[in-house]
Amino acid sequence: RMEGQGSYTLPTGTEYRGALRDGMFDGEGELLFPNGGRYRAVWHRGVPTQGKYTFADGLEYKDKKWHYCDGYDRRFYTEICSGLKPAGISQFTNLDPPKKIPEGCYDCGDGFYNPETRVIVDYKLRFLRNADDDEHEWIIRTCRKAWDETIEHKPKP
After folding, report:
1. Is the pLDDT of residue 64 over 80?
2. What's the number of CA atoms in the CB half-sphere (13 Å) around residue 73?
3. Which Pfam families match (predicted)?
4. pLDDT at residue 142, as a whole number
5. Strand order in 4-9's β-sheet?
6. In the 8-state DSSP scheme, what is residue 98?
7. Structural domain boundaries of the chain?
8. CB 121 within 8 A of CB 130
């Protein structure tokens, strides 16, 4: 079994780096997600006992008094850091510019969803999972879809 300091890459592309004991995460270690996020934690027999998640853009998640993108302040983190864009140039995601969604698909946060095949792929178009009925309905109801993308107005020369 894995023992000592090391790294382990899961089939999803998520990588663990840190202490291992008896084949499990045990001690200080971090999960590095393909989207650039990271979760640093103290682990005990494969279970995190305390930890902190940091998004790819540097925003740290707080489980108490979390005010990011709440009902009072709906700005994305990039807007908080860099300011709001002028009227008519809305920002639809925290990424600016947002990822281009393949035709007929939805951006579901960790990748693209094709409702025809019910398959979710990551942003590099690698298979992540099949959506069950609940996830399918949630994505169709709430996520940004390719045909919602706005096209910039270009004045005639």
Report:
1. no
2. 10
3. MORN
4. 87
5. 4-9, 15-21, 24-32, 38-44, 47-54
6. P
7. 4-54, 99-145
8. no
